[in-house]
């Protein structure tokens, strides 16, 4: 129905702001934004209420404001421990994905050798099927390797799952660096690896940030793999923590709302800071 | 060493060396460089290849192997049963329900999110003040973990929760139902929540695609007297074709392996009756928690085969032009 309304709008002319289209545009945009974030805001505000308040009037506002739920989550639950675990795993995953992905994409972009396209196809095959399907044998393998209940049990598979997309995004970026730059660098005495380190890396920073952000968010949010391989409560990540807390304190609605809000916060902040970069980085990828 | 550096990898196989008196010296330099090149190739790609093979491909192979056994996960598998696990799966009504639910999620996502996302993206592509803020807000659900979002909606939807209260206060009390407990309703509730969560991803991709549509084209059409809608219909949307197809592909693969949201929102009883099960939850329920490792792995292989075939068909008929480089290996 959005489109039907749009079709009524007069033509927009290029760059200039279209004043007569604006009120309707704003109304629609506001409605869409409201649908997107109202539930989230409700959860955050709900954390400031008491459970009896919520039960009595589910849609009301906090009256009075209660800080207790948030304080309780931050002091009595394993929130900090879980946030720390999530951070270690997400940062470890991101670092490894960026380093390994960059190295492989550099070779696939800047070296010509027999079997190069075969190797590339080999990696891109990973895009074609859900890695989640391999989760059961993966668990068995990690168990046999004695890696279950360690950070590695989450980091290593996550790196593997993220590599195909990383390489697909980075390769065109690296291929696009003009040959002349490489020639100039080599005349100045730089080796191929020197070119990678001093020129290709800085030049592909936007793409590196994009793949880094994508790997970080995917890792921060991941649930199935940690659920299976981290049975030790001290190693639990935030998504596992949210799930535990909500099933443990089913009657403490306000507490669950507070915990859920706190678990959302880091991802929201992080994304707000990186949003421009993600959209920018995707532009190249979408163009192909 | 300058000479070594100057001799780059032959671009396009131009390896014919110019004849000359110092050819022998150059040849050995070239050979040394060639060797160094191969060391670099192997050194730089090996870590990625090893991790990828070990944690993606090898488990896949093991899934196929284990699926042929009846095996409780202790000791090596010994009781070979051939394809029996597969036939059992297709005889289990719960698994067939899971297949149906996956189909609902795949097609429901495509048919609902696509039009909404296109409309919103075209709207947010117009130039108006504060546009960036609106774009950010629309992406919020997509950034949040599926688990968090799932728990959030569970609170909003269960036991006469906020959604029901809201409906009543709007005079639509007749719509109130057991959103996550009614066996006929739950999958549609989950589809709605998934739409809320993932439509932002479609929008983000489409906006990225829209920013690649040159202004000159739409300006030229406007000068020719085309209306805003005509411009969208005949200029902008056709140019979005590749983006839309890539989104469809990602959405399809994602929908086939959906797990987190279903797992945390639906009560195990509802799930085990098949009302909200998907292939992935069915696989984990049976393989991991019921310790039917052979059977669980057979389900994993079925999930894999379905995704792979769907992906190949999609790529063969729709996607080919768009990610030629990505999938067929012809980088451009």
TrEMBL record, chain B:
InterPro entries: ABC_transporter_permease, MetI-like, MetI-like_sf. The chain crosses the membrane at residues 41-68, 103-124, 136-156, 185-208, 246-264, 292-314. It is a multi-pass membrane protein. Coiled coil: none annotated. It is found in: Cell membrane. The keyword Cell membrane applies. SUPFAM superfamilies: MetI-like. CDD domains: TM_PBP2 (cd06261). Residues 99-314 form the ABC transmembrane type-1 domain. Keywords: Cell membrane, Membrane, Transmembrane, Transmembrane helix, Transport. Residues 1-30 are annotated as: Disordered. Residues 10-21 have a biased composition (Low complexity). Belongs to the binding-protein-dependent transport system permease family. This is Raffinose/stachyose/melibiose transport system permease protein. It comes from Micromonospora vinacea.
